[in-house]
């Protein structure tokens, strides 16, 4: 027998995160392209990011036929939020010479799956890349990061918005994420968590 799920946050109703999810306005538009393997993931942080941001959209797939329309939005300049040799560090709008806000395209999946999204969508791979000049440590305490500076999708979005739209702060988006992680730790038991996940 399956547990009843909240249709909005996709969590079991007894663990619904909706009361913790804010509804924030942002000048920046966020487009998350989610690999299908992430949709039912217990820690679907991309979903939390999009639920908490009014100016955002989540699309699920591997190849996106309508990608041109999604990334060419009048009044915005589009970029891929993804590290790479050519990636330019994001700077606050207050010091930016270009008056247009960013449309940040964020691939969601493991590094391998995110790279596959780029490979299957040449328009995506052709976008200019932006990255975080300084990466704050991840709060994702349940799995070891594949590399230093690796963040969950939600954390990457929050840190990018905090840089771009300073002094506005988007940390409220992290509240359901923190609750989700605490719930997972409680479910596995503190002793098990400390034995397997503490460094």
From TrEMBL:
Cross-referenced InterPro entries: DTW (IPR005636), DTWD2/TAPT (IPR039262)
EC number: 2.5.1.25
Keywords: S-adenosyl-L-methionine, Transferase, tRNA processing
GO biological process annotation, one example: tRNA processing
Record has Iron-sulfur as a keyword: no
All residue ranges annotated as the DTW domain in the record: 2-189
Domain of life (superkingdom): Bacteria
Enzyme superclass (EC): transferase
One function term, GO molecular function aspect: tRNA-uridine aminocarboxypropyltransferase activity
Pfam families found in the cross-reference section: DTW
Family: Belongs to the TDD superfamily. DTWD2 family.
PANTHER family (alphabetical): TRNA-URIDINE AMINOCARBOXYPROPYLTRANSFERASE 2
Protein name per its UniProtKB record: tRNA-uridine aminocarboxypropyltransferase
Organism: Pseudomonas alkylphenolica
